[in-house]
Write a structure and sequence with these properties.
The complex is a heterotrimer of chains A (315), B (632) and C (203). Chain A has 315 residues and is of the alpha+beta class. Chain A is 35% helix and 19% strand. Chain A is elongated, with a radius of gyration of 27 Å. By secondary structure, chain C is an all-alpha fold. In chain C, helix 2 packs antiparallel against helix 5, helix 3 runs antiparallel to helix 4 and helix 4 packs antiparallel against helix 5. The chains are: A alpha+beta (315), B mainly alpha (632), C mainly alpha (203). The interface between A and B is large, with 92 and 92 residues.
Chain lengths: 315, 632, 203
Amino acid sequence: MSDSPTFMHTFGPAADPITRLGWILSAVAMLVVVVIGVFILVALFRRRATTGNLAEVETSAGRSDFIYIGTAASIVILVGSFVYVMAVLAETSSPPLDPALTVQVIGHQWWWELRYSDRNGANAFVTANEIHIPVGHPVRFVLTTADVIHSFWVPQLAGKTDLIPGRRNATWFQADTPGTYLGLCGEYCGLQHAHMHVAVVAEDAPAFRAWWSGQIAARAPPATKEIANGENVFLSRCSACHTIRGTSAAGKIGPDLTHVMSRNTIAAGTLPNTRGFLAGWILNPGQMKPGTQMPATPLAPAELEVLLAYLETLK
Amino acid sequence: MTAVAQDRELASRLEEIWKTKPGWQGWISTVDHKEIGKRYIATALIFLVLGGLEALVIRLQLAGPERHMLSPQEYNQFFTMHGVTMIFLYALPVLSGFSNFLWPLVFGSRDMAFPRLNALSYWIFLFAGLLIYSSFLGGQVPNSGWFNYVPLAEHEYNAGLNVDFYAVGTVFLGISTTVGSINFIVTLMKTRAPGMTIQRMPILVWGTLVASISNLLAIPSLTVACVFLFLDRHFGMHFFDAALGGQPLLWQHLFWIFGHPWVYVVVLPAMGIVSDILPVFSRRPLVGYMMVAGATVATAMLGFGVWMHHMFATGLPPMAAAFFGVSSLVISIPSAVAVFAWIATIWGGRPVFSTAFLFTAGFVLLFTIGGVSGVMTAAVPLDLQLTDTYFVVAHLHYVLIGINVFPVVAGLYFWMPKMTGRLLSERLGKWNFWTMFIGFNLGFFPMHIAGMLGMPRRIYTYADGLGWNTVNLITTIGAFVFAFGVLLLLINVWWGLRKGEIAGANPWGAPTLEWSVPSPPPPYNFLVIPTVASRYPLWEEQLGTEPRSSIYVGPSLDEGRETIGTTPTDASPELILRMPGDSYSPFLLAVAMTIAFYGALLSQWWLAAVGTIGVIAFAIHWMWPTPQEDTA
Amino acid sequence: MTASRVTPTATDALPFAANAGRHSPGWWGMVAVLMTEGGLFVLLLFSYIYTSAFDHTHWMVDGPPDLKLALPNTLILLVSSATAWWGEKGIKSGNVARLRLGLSVTLMLGIAFAGIQGKEYADKKFGPSRDAYSSLFYTITGFHFAHVIVGIIMLATVLIWASKGAFNERRHLAVTNVGLYWHFVDAVWLAVFTTLYLAPHLQ
């Protein structure tokens, strides 16, 4: 994949037919513009040499055949486009196979909550901002929102579908090539619409299964005194909003942090998930993502130290 | 008495009847459509400059990755106000200004059908614009985008007055647009010169006619949406609250039932300006007049059947998506008709490359680009990728700048001489055109690419390494070049007002009635009401038209403010219209409305009550029958 | 001024617009006003129908609205339209007394309608901020109510003008326009009544 989340180069059956459509329509569009442009230029200059006179008026009949032929040509192009468009719509609106995996995506200002489970609802777990999918298999996404309208968009895998209060929308995609694909919020949703990214990690079956079993597990119990102290800091300062499975921390306002260190970024793609950024984020998130709903958490240096040590164990 | 002396005596009699008092009293009370039209244009251009400055600030922020000149809150306010200003306070009002100035002149009439209503619609426009901009005083500027989706715009997520300025301001402005539209419709139906049948109307007026009819049906949709939102926000109602049975998507339906017709409202009159100017400088009648007029009507009608194409990503049922995909493609057919009619007109003419002509010819190309990118966004599955990206931002700017601003600038070069009596500089005009044309394409074409590279609209900054840096930098440079072009226009206008060459009655050898009167026209427009026999009354000699229009023989109606009323289709003389004189009522009524709307905005209900009582009182006073109309 | 000599011609045969009824700009202006007002109510009813199609758990939780007051009130409004028409027909033949009687009865029926509507609001068990249904119910009927109030003010104003002798058989455009407005208010009520009151009983 390239650096840009460009939908002119895509990697799955929900997007590829649209990409072809995009290129073909772009080519037709440019051709039309060039043809019209040439017509305008010829029209402008073919009789300009004899001009400059604001007293004369041309009395010859106009070439109204231009209108008939031009409009007829436009209609042919439009009808052709329409047939092709409908074919692509039919091709991309549902997956070729019934998806084995359904992920529930819940939009929040400004992050993505992700709920996974087996088909029968067993083995459920919650994570955030990083979707793992098995490569080569269609995945279904059920889309709801906790607050305002958002739009779920992974340009290189599929078009947008909105998350609307009171509705359950659905979409699907499939990645044919392993890799990480950038997803964005596609509907203006307030202050940090710009920083509402989601990463889609497509990996082969063994890696995906390993990720899945890692995510289902509760957090590993603290191995050292320092880590246990860190967990206590977490429970007293962070648990109102965040959940860590295996502890009494069960807050639902912010992302589930049971395996926060398995993710590459923090704050929905805003910052790299490193110790330094994590520390800065905890102390003053509003500075890094102005408007974020996460409050600043003033911590003594020692508290911060053990908290970070603890968080780093949440792999 | 000699003939000339008789003319002079008639002129001074009419001047006495129609003139406006000098000084501030005349300024506030005038109902002269020419004054009101010029004010509309000047006010709208001021809003254009404000909206443009907002855009430049936005472009500075986006010139490179991770720039933080504006906070996210400020950025959101700027992009919202940029859209609100351009779409509501510039794009239609400027066209209303041209129509106000021109209609009675092209119709061979002495004023609009309802001159006081005309003044009222200007005052409301001005006060509504000031009301919306007064949000800057308290720092609570609208911040939810120009289409203001709920629930983001609901009190729960947006507690300040920001959105209230939007909701109250647009409802208030809607009154201006509505009364203005009624005035245009009735003016067209009743005040055309005798003989100016529907087929002989200047092509110019078709756009404003159908836009006005569209407004009557579209504006209520925005009004209903904003009233619902206001009740939700201030009275705890639940129109859009999913938790209690409300539907957030209802806002989107109501908004776009208004919003898409509105797009045509702000482009069709501008296309009319092009259809009027292009033939003058091609030195031939417009090719396919009836087809262009029909295309205008068809576009406006189809414009009511495409609104859901703004909502493809909301999870529409496939049948609805297919239907609105088709209608959105069909609507481009009448546009194709117009484009080929313009090309055929240039082709079959002997083009004179005046500045006004360059802007109209440039427009045809920009219109085509905006049209084909529109066809791309109408392709449903592709739109799921394109929507809410910079591709759409590019498309809508090709539409709104290409199809509105370019014709408007052409209109200024063309009709400023009629308004002021002085020509603009053609030399500076050429520079003006090329900087605007090159700057525009340099600024906005790369936005298509930014969108295709996956850049969503309405993000206040973006990370490095997404491949968006170069296109954004080029866009910012282009935006400044374009802005420089607009500055050249303003300099040219300023220069033209003072030093411009004296224009004379008909500097362009143009065919329609406004060019038969002096520049600037006298307060009464025409000494005698002309009778029209063809589409191009002043080209009849060259075209060999028979029978000829009678421009200098007709009723003088010099016993009071009077003009001729004619039948709607055939324009046979039917009535004498007694026109009201200058009046303070429109100004006072608009002030009372402003008080009422501020009362609602600030939840000061006593203030709203005072304003409402004032509105009722001034309205009754306005309508009070005058005894003089009882004669004859 | 152009050098051309202008030749004024006479226009004695043409009537003044104020006396021209449906040919006058004023009449067309009122038609245009009612066109946009009609659009407003179509969109209000669209909002009601649209919302009713989705969420049923919060929709009309206490059953369809009672017809006990609304049905007679509808008849009152229908009769008031007839009396307005009767009065206007009077002035067309120069009968000012009949116009005044017609307008007076219409005005009283209009006030009665508003009063009964007010009573219905007062008796309602829920307010406008209970749920989406109640918001729509009060806002749609409230918009209509506001039009009735405006109509009452217009009827009263025209009645005063009639008493001052402002109208005769040729000149009565204001009466025609107010009558047109009042018929519109009546027609809108029929649509509102059918959608909000009757239709729920038919299901």
